[in-house]
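> call design_seq(struct)
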């Protein structure tokens, strides 16, 4: 995991705001949720009982890396986003499924 991803996950866990390079974490105390942005585009929203993921309009290696770091720290073991044959997929271990990537997918 990259240093910026560790810092991102620390900010998520502590409910702190963070801006570091291309990654921003914002905490909304009213809703008790955290949003993660990459280059200003929303890639994840987290609450007490969910992680919702987005590609932010770019299916890049950096986006995938940030999402996987978030899932590793906040999801179930084995949840991930991966690429095969140029297409993105989601592994959701709790539901026991691998599905094509879709924006707004919720891990609960």
């Amino acid at each position: 995991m990259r240093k910026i991803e560790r810092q991102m996950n620390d900010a998520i866990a502590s409910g702190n705001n963070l801006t570091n390079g291309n990654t921003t974490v914002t905490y909304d105390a009213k809703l008790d949720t955290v949003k993660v942005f990459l280059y200003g585009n929303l890639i994840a929203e987290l609450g007490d009982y969910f992680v919702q993921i987005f590609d932010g309009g770019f299916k890049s290696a950096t986006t995938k890396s940030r999402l996987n770091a978030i899932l590793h720290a906040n999801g179930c073991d084995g949840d991930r986003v991966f690429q095969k044959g140029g297409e993105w997929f989601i592994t959701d271990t709790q539901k026991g499924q691998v599905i094509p990537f879709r924006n707004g997918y919720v891990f609960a």
